[in-house]
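TICKET #2291
ISSUE: user wants both folds in one file
ATTACHMENT 1:
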Amino acid sequence: MMTPMRYVVLAIATLISLHLIISFASPNYGRVTSIHHIKEQIGLKSNIPPYKLGVPDDYYVASNHSSAQGRKANATFVILARNSDLNGVIKSVKQMEDRFNKKFGYPYVFLNEEPFDDAFKTRISELTDAKVEFGLIPKSHWVQPDWIDEERASTVRKTMQDNGVIYGGSLPYRNMCRFNSGFFYRHELVQKYQYYWRVEPDVTFFCDLDYDPFLIMQDQNKMYAFTISLYEYEATIMTLWPTVKEFINSNKHLLTEDNAMSFISDDGGETYNRCHFWSNFEIANLDLWRGEGYTKFFDFLDEKGGFYYERWGDAPVHSIGAALFAKKDQIHFFNDIGYRHEPFQHCPQGDSHKRGKCWCDPAQNFDYEWYSCLARYDKMFS
């Protein structure tokens, strides 16, 4: 049975969805047809979410070309995995190659807290002609810091596990969340790149992608991109927002003008509505995390110990960071990238489904389900 609050969320999402249906009927919807035209719109205010303008035809490439106009971004895939994840990684990489990268040839960076074994390296390298690098995570970036009170942290883990909180009893999961929040982009193999696409084991890519999303990020000055957004599990972030507010009150000068605060808060930052981008898929400009704002933000969160004294995830941390330190129109929804990470999926609709030769069922689409936050993203532009 849904709680009264869930009925409110569902009602709001339904109303916004009706507004979107009206927007789709606009004669200007999908009219962008050239790179030049879309560049003219960068920086201009619009009441249409950027993804509804469509991808200019100039970006699409023929099957015998490697990239539009011979251009490539300084970008890589980043995959955090263990040796035991091999089969799941093979599934993800094989699909990425078949759907996209065999045309574009972007490199891969694999990261692990233990050395990758030869079997892992061999099997993965056989899947692609692109450059593949395997990196070891420094222990200082992975293990629980010495200054964390382990007695307090272990008590929290037990309590969460007893209460059925997902990954609530896991220390490795917390290490992963902290690493993804504040350290992966500092790794020596990642530092040379400007953009990254995060890929995880056992995910599904449903559609052919015949244009380069990295060039969309580069040409349109996008800082962060997603395919799925949803509400965070409240029991894992009980003190996260009070900590964020404490940081904001002391560092207002670091916040970006015209940011995406309205995506994560319904009252101007007084409370957190728990919306976040599901960070198992993200494409981003690494300068977002390398900048002064996010660097100080992460360090502040880390010092509070919430990654271990609670179970702060990298998804809300990245999402709040993107909302505070990027402009709202620098956050992009890749509507035509069909993607599934259990148990949710984004399946492109209409012409995007046909153009991408997507094999997902359009009816099985999380975009405007009651637990999705996409309607809140759309509302930022209304």
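ATTACHMENT 2:
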Amino acid sequence: MDKFRAITVFRRVIELGSFKAAAEDLNLSKAAVSKNINELENYLKSPLIIRTTRRMNVTENGLRYYNHVRNILDEMANADLSILEDTQQLRGELRISMPMSFGLETINPAVCQFMKLYPQVNIDVLMSDQYVNLVDQGIDIAIRGGGQLKDSSLRSRKLVELNRVLCASPAYIENAPELLEPDDLSFHNCLIYSLSLSPTNWVFKNENEIRELNLLAGSYVVNNGLALKQAALAGVGVILTPEILVRDELEAGKLLRLLPAWKVDAHALYAVYPYHRETSHKIRTFIDFLSKLDRK
């Protein structure tokens, strides 16, 4: 038995949830995956995975063994990286996940600048407003909005705070009810970004008070920030969005800032990465680069 291969196969079976998925991920046959698991179980004299025709279940010993070997494999990979990554010249591949709208507007131009500085680094970008599983998809860094990390195997670093602004097009405002205070939004068509942590809960503050609104979704709900901006530009309704996504439109008068005396909490942007890659020079360098960019 090749023990290193067997525990590597075992780890991917657990993480991907099936023998077939692990076989595809490791470029092995399903029979080869089964053989590695059987040999490992025979060596340990304990069942690790209970297989039926429809599903698989990890045993208590299997889960405990997985937690041990995952840490060992991660440390081995990290040890290799500490030697392979030349601190003077970055090289290799960096897989990055980023939200579609903010990625296109801000992060992707920064990635292009980074590639000019480090031409031997190959960048593989996955743009999606949906959260991705870093382990399953082999992602080194994910750029995400705020929120508590649910996976203890991940670490995060705050990059920047994004001020948000309430705005709409002049055409919409001309024909809409008067908007003098947050409560007036109940008479407006509020367009909703569905992947927000609180899509219809908008909180406004001024020097004297806080107004928390639980809005009914308007006529347009979408999971993409650029699509939301396009709807606002078309005069469909009011949006609450990061200011950086509408800065040019505000300066050009295509969108108007609403309720300027009231503020909403900023959203934080984080770099999220697997905990075992904390010492990766390549990852640290990229995150440092992003954190120094001016996005005010």
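RESOLUTION: both attachments delivered.
EXTRA DETAIL ON ATTACHMENT 2: The first helix runs from residue 3 to 16.
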